[in-house]
Write a structure and sequence with these properties.
Blueprint: H1 2-8, E1 38-40, E2 51-53, H2 103-122, H3 128-138, H4 151-174, H5 185-194, H6 196-205, H7 215-218, H8 223-226, H9 229-247, H10 251-263, H11 265-291, H12 301-304, H13 310-318, H14 322-333
Antiparallel strand pairs: 1-2
Helix pairs in contact: 2-6, 4-5, 4-9, 4-11, 5-6, 9-13, 10-11
GO cellular component, one term: plasma membrane
Keywords: Membrane, Transmembrane, Transmembrane helix
Protein name: Cardiolipin synthase N-terminal domain-containing protein
Length: about 325
């Protein structure tokens, strides 16, 4: 009879068990209790623990019961979302977007702020009239008055006109921001007038990775022009010619240019601009190289990218097109 009473006290694991009295209050019976525990296993629809009834006590173990429809079994592997950010779009939005480390952006913005303060307030400005004259001569707004412009200054002026093309070929295809709505092309256009001073704000706001470029997009303007080997070849040839023109000038010409750098605000800030563009170029070359899955075969070009203008131009001539990178990604996915 005790066994029948014990069996009838066991209820489904989804319901609570009533407290049982200790065995000391049970009526004595001639039927002896078994010497082994009675185990009741859960069914397949619930993740309950075993209920063990001791031959001396009938106090059941605690039942942390959970429905299989509302909770995950402890033996099942953890559920991992296919979207790390908790967002099916892979980012964007304020819901599941991962927290961004703003340290680099803050430091870069602080650097740009200090740079602009130096340009407007601290840069040497001893020859403002001469600066206007030089600018008119370089823009061909001044007729032939017999004055011969400094060769290094002329070379610097023309090489600065080519830098926006180099950066547009590096930024527009593979350095757009997929996690922000800020386009890159306005900054590239402004760099035609402001150089690195106009590009650094985009570097601050840049949020990788770049969005996938559709096949229809890189087959039309402007990506078709920016991906063209002819464009890269012309830029490299022009850079070699301009560099040779500057190097072929004598030492006196370079000394004269250095004097201009110390006193002319126009030449001073343009020289700093050239140095900044040359400094940032290797990073964007590496970013472009990685986006094209070419960071292994093309890694030997990274040291050459440190050569001002010529290194980036050579990389643009030798890099694989976006179509090859797209096929490589498709092969890896399959």
């Amino acid at each position: 009879m005790s066994m029948i009473a014990a069996s009838s006290s066991i209820v489904s694991c989804n319901s609570s068990l009533p407290p049982l009295k200790p065995n000391s209050h049970l009526p004595k019976s001639s039927i002896s209790l078994p010497k082994f525990p009675i185990s009741i296993h859960n069914d397949s629809n619930h993740s309950c623990e075993l209920i063990k009834i001791s031959p001396l006590t009938l106090k059941p173990a605690k039942l942390p019961c959970r429905s299989s429809l509302n909770a995950q079994s402890q033996q099942d592997p953890p559920i991992v979302s296919a979207y790390p950010n908790g967002n099916e779009t892979g980012g964007g939005g304020s819901g599941g977007e991962e927290e961004r480390d703003w340290t680099t952006s803050f430091l870069l913005f602080a650097f740009w702020t200090g740079l602009m303060y130096y340009v407007f307030f601290l840069a040497p400005n001893q020859t403002p009239v001469t600066d206007v004259y030089f600018l008119k001569k370089l823009l061909n707004l001044k007729g032939d008055d017999g004055y011969e412009m400094n060769q290094v200054l002329v070379a610097l002026w023309y090489i600065m006109g080519l830098w926006p093309l180099i950066y547009s070929m590096l930024l527009i295809p593979t350095a757009r921001s997929s996690k922000s709505k800020i386009p890159v092309w306005p900054f590239v256009v402004l760099s035609c007038f402001g150089g690195a001073y106009a590009l650094i704000p985009y570097f601050v706001l840049w949020r990788p990775p770049a969005p996938t470029v559709a096949e229809s997009e890189w087959r039309r303007w402007p990506l078709k022009f920016l991906e063209s080997k002819i464009t890269a070849g012309v830029a490299l040839a022009a850079g070699v010619a301009i560099t040779a023109y500057a190097v072929s000038s004598g030492g006196d010409v370079w000394k004269e240019f250095y004097q201009y750098f110390q006193g002319s605000k126009f030449i001073h800030i343009m020289s700093i601009d050239f140095a900044l563009l040359s400094t940032f170029a290797p990073f964007w070359i590496y970013n472009d190289m990685t986006a094209r899955k070419w960071d292994g075969k093309g890694s030997w070009l990274l040291p050459l990218s440190l050569v001002p203008f010529l290194g980036p131009s050579l990389y643009l001539l030798l890099r694989p097109p976006l179509s090859v990178a797209r096929e490589t990604t498709s092969d890896e996915a399959s």
